[in-house]
Design a protein that fits this description.
The chain is of the alpha/beta class and 203 residues long. The protein has 6 helices and 9 strands, in the order αβββααβαβαβββαβ. The strands form 3 sheets. Strands 5-4-3-7-8 form a 5-stranded mixed β-sheet. A two-stranded antiparallel sheet has the order 1-2.
Length: 203
């Protein structure tokens, strides 16, 4: 019980440091290098839907989606339709989940993951701007640059691969609705996954 209360206190502290951005408003802008050293800016993708997916390689919730190939298939299906898919690693240097550029490239190749790019957000600026507290936090930005969805990948906050069967995939549904020029019917959900380990804030 004490451990649970301590965890709640930690999450409350992080939430205070990472307030959620407003839905249906212009999404927070960013410019950050990817795994190849190319600087990616949100403004580069105006006119396209953009998915931001917070990722930690050692997270069991993340592994549920990637070891089954489910996430890779989802990424490819929407990227083939013109969606920009940016994975985001907001782990601070020397923190769990931190990867160098070289390690990131090797990791993506080993897992056969092919997003538009993986953003190396070691300073945590992108993660904090979008209120990300967990790996498997998602944000979807519409073609006009507005934040259209924020939350979980689906409605199954479990680590077992069997939970994928019959799950409601909020990201897939939101992208489908946007592609049909419809409003996102469920624009905010509670993200689940593994806690992100940010670098300390610089004063």
């Amino acid at each position: 019980m004490r451990a649970w209360l301590a965890l709640l206190g930690i999450l409350a502290t992080w939430a205070a440091q990472t307030p959620m951005p407003a839905l249906n408003e212009l999404a927070p802008r960013f410019s950050v290098a990817d795994e190849t050293g190319v600087v990616r800016s949100l403004s580069d993708y105006r006119g396209k839907a953009v998915v931001l997916e917070w990722h930690t390689s050692s997270c069991s919730y993340v592994n549920k989606h990637y070891r089954t190939g489910q996430m890779q298939r989802l990424q490819k299906a929407w990227m083939d339709r013109g969606v920009v898919w940016l994975m985001v690693n907001s782990s601070g240097k020397d923190a769990p989940g931190y990867l160098t550029s070289e390690e990131s490239r090797a990791y993506l190749a080993e897992r056969k993951i092919a997003p538009t790019a993986m953003l190396l957000d070691a300073e945590g600026a992108v993660g904090r701007a979008y209120g990300a507290l967990t790996a498997l936090h998602f944000a979807i930005i519409d073609a006009a640059g507005r934040l259209a969805y924020l939350g979980a990948i689906d409605d199954q906050p479990r680590v077992e691969a069997a939970s994928l069967a019959g799950a409601t995939n909020y990201v897939d549904r939101a992208l489908t609705e946007l592609s049909q020029n419809r409003p996102v019917s469920v624009p905010r959900t509670e993200p689940y996954g593994c806690s992100l380990h940010y670098a300390p804030l610089k004063l």
